[in-house]
Amino acid sequence: MGRVKLSGLLVFIFFLTSGSPIWAKPSSCEDCHLKVTPGIVKDFHRSKMSETLTCASCHGREHQSANDVDKAKLPSIETCQRCHPKQAKQYMSGKHFLGWIALKAMPTTHLQPEAFIKGRKGCGGCHSLGATAEAKRQPDYPKYAMDCQNCHTRHAFSKAEAQEPEACMTCHMGFDHPQWEMWSSSKHGVIYRLDRLMGRAIDERRGPRCQTCHMPDGDHRVMTAWGFLGLRLPEKDKEWLSWRLTILKAFRVLDPQGKPTDRLEVIKAGKVARLTEEEWQAEREKMVRTCQRCHNSAFVKEQLHQADMMLREADRLFAQAIEIVASLRKEGIIKSEDNNPYPDLLRFYETPYKIEQLLYMMFMDYRMKTFQGAFHMNPDYTTWYGYAKMKKTLVEIKELAQKMRHQAQEKI
Ligand code: HEC
Ligand code: HEC
Ligand code: HEC
Ligand code: HEC
Ligand code: HEC
Ligand code: HEC
Ligand code: HEC
Ligand code: HEC
């Protein structure tokens, strides 16, 4: 066993030596870390940065031994910004940078056990973002954060890795944002992946990948017109506006009379909704230009318009369901902690009532899939995981409301 390990180490050292000028003059950090964390040293030597940087370039020199580990600096966005100001500036003007702020803005977040927020395995597993030096000084900020190293994983920090759609997969998948599943089984995704299988170079692949549409020309600012919640505040379509107002009351962004609440400020800070027509339009036009690299403008406008109309249909059903639950609260059949007849949907699943759980599924699961599927050209998600389930759930909510009223009357 010992011999095998030793020869493995020799091969490993040989591997590092070849073509690596740093190794010719090993840094004290690497000397010791080759024993402590050999994987990290090896990964770092895959990075282009190992040609000019050392461990200390990002972690400082203050920590020098096992006894002063707490002196090692963990990088913030500014660490990378020093040498990559363009990418950092773009990144900080986009949505990823606001991931932690948007998370903290949700009332549900404060109801979750700490391990689910700070660790890398609950909400914090995807939302530990926006780690500037200042943010990291706040006591409730996670010690280990993600930002640049999300897509350029440490310590290889590779551009090629970040260009593949799998770089987005760990976060943009699953229950409420299955963009990975939707894209990878759409025509776009299938064509992209087939070209890759056939060994075509990245710019020779016909289908668009996540980065083609969301990081055009390598722009690190990610932001869409509708966003996660599918909300914009100004609305010219009168009917749609009336449903939107109901939804906003259930997000408690508006009070029952339709006046803005304090929560609007929080929504603004996290850019959770587009607040002006121009803001929405600018993002949409950027996307249209991207589609037009491969499709004609009439085709693109038609496709995106249909997707908007699918969201409109989803909102029609969703608003109906919300008003049914609100009427039960008004009648006192559902006991509310405050006098607000609208449920608080931004508490997500934190409600003891089955009917409100159904409403939560309509919001986070089925409505999301309807419109996200539409924008990612996936007819199965839009129809069977989305719209069909909204219809089914609305029937269940109606039936349950009737039962609850019945039971309430029997008690009297
Ligand atoms: C004599 C050995 C030694 C030297 C020299 C050394 N380290 Fe370390 N380092 C350690 C040990 C031991 C740990 C803790 C490992 C553990 O807990 O598993 C550590 C941990 C770290 C951590 C993680 C800190 C954290 O809070 O998670 C970083 C980053 C780090 N070292 C960077 C460096 C850099 C940069 C240098 C050179 C300036 C350096 N190390 C030099 C032994 C060393
Ligand atoms: C280009 C900047 C950069 C360089 C150079 C760099 N690191 Fe890191 N390192 C990072 C980032 C980013 C993280 C992740 C920080 C976080 O999770 O908050 C990290 C985390 C770490 C950790 C703690 C996390 C873990 O997985 O254990 C250790 C240990 C570490 N680095 C050691 C090293 C060593 C040893 C070297 C040199 C071989 C090195 N680093 C070079 C940026 C760098
Ligand atoms: C001291 C300056 C410096 C710092 C700090 C720094 N970089 Fe770099 N980075 C470089 C240099 C130099 C290159 C190589 C440029 C080249 O050869 O094209 C590079 C290249 C890169 C590349 C492209 C790699 C490739 O495969 O083409 C990425 C990605 C990258 N850095 C990410 C980061 C991240 C993330 C951080 C912070 C954790 C960081 N850098 C911190 C100097 C730095
Ligand atoms: C698997 C990774 C992952 C986990 C776990 C996760 N999220 Fe998210 N979250 C995302 C992604 C990705 C988005 C953006 C999705 C989109 O726009 O479609 C997002 C969006 C959000 C938004 C909307 C932000 C906005 O500005 O529009 C909020 C709020 C949010 N998440 C809260 C939470 C809470 C609370 C939890 C834990 C109960 C959680 N998330 C768990 C990945 C995750
Ligand atoms: C959401 C994924 C993602 C995140 C997060 C991300 N990058 Fe990138 N990065 C990419 C992609 C994709 C490319 C390739 C862009 C292109 O096609 O030119 C890239 C390219 C780069 C390059 C190489 C530029 C060049 O053309 O040589 C650098 C340097 C870089 N990123 C630094 C950063 C820094 C610094 C951060 C954090 C502020 C960061 N990245 C965060 C995805 C990301
Ligand atoms: C570490 C997890 C993670 C990775 C990896 C990741 N994202 Fe995200 N992404 C998020 C979270 C969390 C949000 C929501 C941020 C917020 O609330 O401000 C988000 C938001 C977005 C948005 C904005 C949606 C809106 O509200 O307008 C886009 C677009 C996006 N991501 C695209 C990508 C792409 C493309 C990649 C891969 C190149 C990627 N993301 C990689 C976690 C991630
Ligand atoms: C063909 C272009 C295209 C590709 C490829 C693409 N998207 Fe999108 N994406 C869109 C459009 C269009 C929207 C909606 C934009 C709007 O609101 O106007 C969108 C919206 C989003 C959003 C916001 C919420 C939503 O789903 O509506 C996120 C997050 C996102 N995309 C992530 C991804 C990820 C991750 C991938 C790869 C797995 C990906 N996208 C692939 C075009 C694309
Ligand atoms: C990099 C080139 C490229 C970009 C950018 C692109 N597409 Fe496509 N798209 C294709 C290719 C190639 C096909 C497959 C052609 C076919 O189905 O015959 C396709 C097919 C489609 C289809 C038909 C899907 C099906 O199931 O048959 C729709 C709808 C579509 N694209 C809409 C869009 C929209 C909307 C955008 C922008 C958000 C966009 N595309 C961006 C290359 C692209």
Automatic annotation (TrEMBL):
Top-rank taxon, per record: Bacteria
MF terms (GO), sorted A to Z: oxidoreductase activity
Keywords (A to Z) from UniProt: Signal
Pfam families with a match to the protein in the record: Multi-haem_cyto
Protein name: Cytochrome C
